[in-house]
Amino acid sequence: LPSLSLPSSMHLIQVDSVQRWMEDLKLMTDCECMCILQSKPISIEKDEQNELILSSQYSTCDNLQLLLKRAWIISTELTRIAQKLEKNRWQRVHSMTVRVNCHVRSMINEYNSFTRNSSEEMHQFEKLLIDKCSEFTAFTERCIQTEDEQILKSMKSCINETLTTIAQYFGQLIELVLTHEAQNLLRQIELSDSVYITESAISSLFSLTQEGAHLCRIIAKEGGVVVLFKICRRDCFRCLYPQTLRTLASICCVEEGMHQLEKVDGILCLAEILTDNTHSEATHAEAAAVIAQITSPHLTFTQHLSSFLENMEEIVTALVKLCQEASSGEVFLLASAALANITFFDTMACEILLQLNAMKILLAACSDKHIVDTPYSRDQVVTILANMSVLDQCTSEIIQGNGVQLLMEMLFERSSSGNSAEVAACERVQQKSAVTLARLSRDPEVADAAVKLSCIPRLIKLCRSPAERNNSDSVLVACLAALRRLAVMSPDGLEDSDFQQLVKPRLVDSFLLCTNMEESFV
Questions:
Q1: Most buried residue among 121, 227, 304, 482 by CB atoms closer than 10 A?
Q2: What is the pLDDT of residues 398-409, one digit of tens each?
Q3: Biological process GO terms, please (predicted)?
Q4: Considering the entire predicted model, what is its pTM?
């Protein structure tokens, strides 16, 4: 019923747009009209400060989200003011300045309505920012009252300077506020024995980590990793381990988080969790996610993880077991991602995997479409196979586990959704499967199996047809390398034209020929 899909998707877009508009509406009110009202909150007794202020009905997490949205709006408006100022659009500069003034006052009032113990330093910055915004508004008001180009030119430098100062004060205030809130949440987690309060605080902390690396750095500097690992060492909070570990994985995307993890023997704690069979699968999976994060080959600051090597064998053993017993695709993905990263992290890991029959376990998992159910999972598996394929001993396991057939199937990996992340994962699967074939085909038995499974025609197709490889150059290079290796072992499998164009020339010449194929048809 293809005709029904369009109205359905349109309906979803409308609902999402309206919902987003409703959320943003309270932040985007007509500030010129509301300025006086919003900057003068209703005076009430301190102990009755619960029902009359709108933001007090929300949780800490909601309040922080509101604060961050307001901060984003102010930051965007300041950038736009600078752009309008460059073009001498004085009327627009003034109206936007009034709006920023209002947003700043609203943000400060909203924040003060739900926090009770803000520091003296924060109050000083609040006052400095409000005073500077008022001065800024007065400046721009004078600008729209004159048409003298000389006066406007002389005032422009003062306005630019004031705008820069406002941006600095605003940035420092937001930094103080976020640090203060992180401290409050961490204090709650550290001091509370209540599962409910601790769960709520960890949930709010996790929400903060999703706002980007800068917030993760603030949390790490305030001792977030130390506090969360304390939770992971308390049996009374076992039900919170998955949530706590998920938050730790987010914080450890920054260098400060990794340093903290090393200081508190975090690797040892993760190893203990992974090897303790009394923990739930969800806990094991989230511990695997932390391992995957801290061993990511994309990070440049993993070299100091010396304690990882001490616990590597235990961790790898536990991860292989988790892959073998995974009840869902998500659990398998987390465990296999950790293993894949570890094979980059240290070559000894490949030897441990070989001893644990990991190849057999991973190949068996790939035949279960409920477990290895996405290109992302296949990407992790083929990464492990590619890194293990440098060992001579693994070829017999590949043949016994029908691994060459799997690699052949992976050369056909295509995205079903067209999603950019999924397309990129499919390209990685194709590239790594070709790399693995090239490495393994040094063994005549593997090369013979690959030829019998028609790998050569598929590799030729990937080289000659850019659409088959999604125009990926990395896939092309890997396929050319695999084709050349197989051609040496089985020269009869290629037609003369394929040999002359794809095998005989230098690799770079064959590469250029294949990349220009699409252009020659235009």
A1: 482
A2: 888 889 999 999
A3: apical protein localization; asymmetric cell division; establishment of mitotic spindle orientation; regulation of asymmetric cell division
A4: 0.79
